[in-house]
Design a protein that fits this description.
This protein is an alpha/beta fold and 564 residues long. It contains 21 helices and 21 strands. The longest helix is centred in the N-terminal third of the chain and has 25 residues.
């Protein structure tokens, strides 16, 4: 800011006196020289050159309106049109009261009449003008996002509130712009390229929302906010906003959440929370660019908050129940129970059975999943031990490990202790790790899996076929079984029974020496075709849905009888 650093390093603020009268220049210098370093110019052109040369240190301009070569009003116009100079405060020196009004309209901060008033009055006006200018510069430096030049979220919300105060009748929309998978762009192309993308998006938003009634801000790394008069062309806006970096080898998708015709009784933050909810609704949906807020989204959000808030109580009251879905070995003439998968169900005292699809993603996002998984692991180990003791038979049961748990250095010790505490072996607990867990930080994950296998755990790669792994990567992974993703199976049979990809995966698994498990098998046709292709293990509704422990016991007893 002009002169600010100089002042605090022990120097004086610089003031330019531009007046064609020698006596006036000398008089002002005598009044001000104790407190300011004075520069002097005798005509408008000289003043303009001196202003440009000293633009980084000049704190104030005292400007006579009647000067040769370039008048004071003409110089004011030049300063106003220059982004680097317009912030320097100007006090006009004049005896013409009509010119005072015109000069204030052209950007002057104040005026000092001629003949000059007492020196204390002159000093007070100069001091006040400099103080106000420096305050504005401080505010300007903090209200704008350094990278994009848009308002920071704090000032964005403040200006939205001010706009509503003075223009309460204008129908306004709250918009949230998010870049899909921006972190991936940063990882692929580097932070510098990511920053350029963000700057390009900001510039594109400025070209789209040119109306003076539009307010633009940046909330977080890749989230932009716009408050604008209601409009109907958001599909076109989304396309234009996404065309910011066409030279990149990867396409950029920007999604827009729109809270149209805002309810102005809501606080401004809540309006944009609604826009964000709408934007999040189409995350990972590559065919949708614009999502409009609906009240149902609030209900969903409140429901999610309720589930998270009730998690500790549900855990302590054992509202979560472990269900078991059998897996059958189909390689022989008759399917044989080989193992099972433990799946958690939430039996809520008032809401009834809550789908895992409703609470598992929430707990993953809020960091609660590790506590729930450990609960399932312990419940599963207890049941295996109970079946061994009471029924004299058991089968291995697989439990799920989340990617977050794979980073826990105490994971191997924890799972092994659970087995030992319940009197079962590590061979009784199979561990399912999703395909996606192997992708990020692959080396660290692979080492953790190798450690688990060393301690005797059987490792199944879950959800294979969901689109993450390369064939080269699969050949290097330490796994004991390959589990085909349910959607992969379903898609293969929906597309005119085109099971060639399944056949290829089974061939790869045979080459690696690991069996293939197919989950989500629902029909006899699917079962027979998968058996024909060489699939080893079948899991799905064709044999049984996930059932409570007491219902699963019938499968164990049937196995015991068949083996007896």
């Amino acid at each position: 800011m002009n002169g600010y650093n100089d002042y605090f390093s022990g120097g004086k603020r610089h003031v330019l006196v531009a007046d064609d009268e020698f006596i006036n220049r000398e008089l002002l210098e005598n009044i001000l020289e104790d407190e300011y370093d004075i520069l002097k110019a005798e005509d408008g052109e000289m003043a303009y050159e001196m202003i440009k040369q000293n633009r980084n240190t000049l704190s104030l301009i005292l400007l006579d309106l009647m000067m040769p070569k370039l008048s004071g009003l003409e110089l004011l116009a030049c300063l106003k049109g220059d982004s680097e100079l317009k912030g320097i405060p100007v006090i006009v020196l004049t005896s013409d009261q009509q010119s005072e009004v015109e000069s204030l309209k052209k950007g002057a901060a104040d005026f000092i009449p001629k003949p000059y008033p007492q020196s204390d009055v002159i000093k007070a006006r100069i001091s006040k003008a400099i103080e106000l200018a420096e305050d504005r510069q401080i505010i300007s430096a903090t209200e704008r996002d350094e990278l994009t030049g848009l308002y920071t979220s704090e000032y964005f919300f403040r200006y939205c509130e001010l706009f509503d105060k003075f223009y309460s009748t204008i129908d306004m929309d709250a918009l949230c712009f998010d870049v899909d998978h921006f972190h991936v762009l940063n990882e692929r192309f580097g932070i510098a390229v990511g920053d350029e993308i963000l700057k390009s998006i900001a510039e594109r938003l400025r070209t789209i929302f040119t109306d003076s009634d539009c307010i633009l801000g940046r909330k977080t790394a890749d989230t932009f906010l716009v408050y604008c008069p209601h409009r109907e062309d958001y599909e076109e806006v989304a396309v234009r906003a996404s065309q910011v970096c066409e030279e990149l080898p990867a396409a950029i998708k920007i999604r827009i959440g729109v809270y149209a015709s805002c309810d102005k009784k809501l606080v401004i933050h809540s309006r944009f929370d609604r826009a964000k909810l709408a934007a999040d609704k189409i995350r990972n949906n590559y065919s949708a660019f614009v999502s409009f807020f609906q009240e149902a989204l609030i209900e969903k959000e409140l429901f999610a908050e309720k589930l998270v808030a009730e998690f500790p109580k549900a855990l302590s009251e054992k509202q979560f129940q472990v269900y078991f879905q059998p897996k059958f070995d189909v390689r022989g003439g008759k399917p044989v129970l080989a193992s099972a998968e433990a799946l958690v169900r939430w039996v809520h005292p008032t809401l009834g059975m809550i789908s895992p699809g409703a609470f598992i993603p929430l707990f993953e996002e809020d960091g609660l999943i590790a506590r729930l998984d450990e609960y399932v692991w312990r419940g599963t180990a207890e049941k295996i031990a109970d079946w061994k003791t009471r029924l004299g038979i058991s089968v291995p049961v697989s439990v799920n490990l989340s990617r977050a748990e794979m980073y826990d250095p105490k994971l191997v010790e924890l799972v092994e202790c659970i087995a030992i505490d319940n009197g079962i072996t590590t061979k009784d607990l199979y561990l399912e790790i999703t395909e996606s867990a192997y992708v990020r930080d692959a080396d660290q994950i692979v080492e953790r899996v190798k450690d688990l296998r060393t301690h005797g755990f059987f490792i199944e790669m879950d959800d294979f076929g969901s689109g993450y792994s390369s064939l080269n990567m699969i050949a290097e992974l330490p796994i004991d079984a390959l589990k085909l993703d349910m959607k992969f199976i379903r898609t293969a049979f929906e597309k005119q029974n085109d099971t060639r990809m399944i056949s290829i995966v089974i061939d790869i698994a045979d080459y690696l020496g690991v069996p293939v498990i197919a989950e989500g098998v629902e029909t006899k046709e699917q079962y027979l075709e998968l058996k024909k292709l060489g699939c080893a293990i079948i899991q799905g509704y064709y044999f049984s849905k996930p059932v409570p422990a007491e219902e699963f016991e019938k499968f164990l007893l049937e196995k015991k009888v068949s083996e007896g």
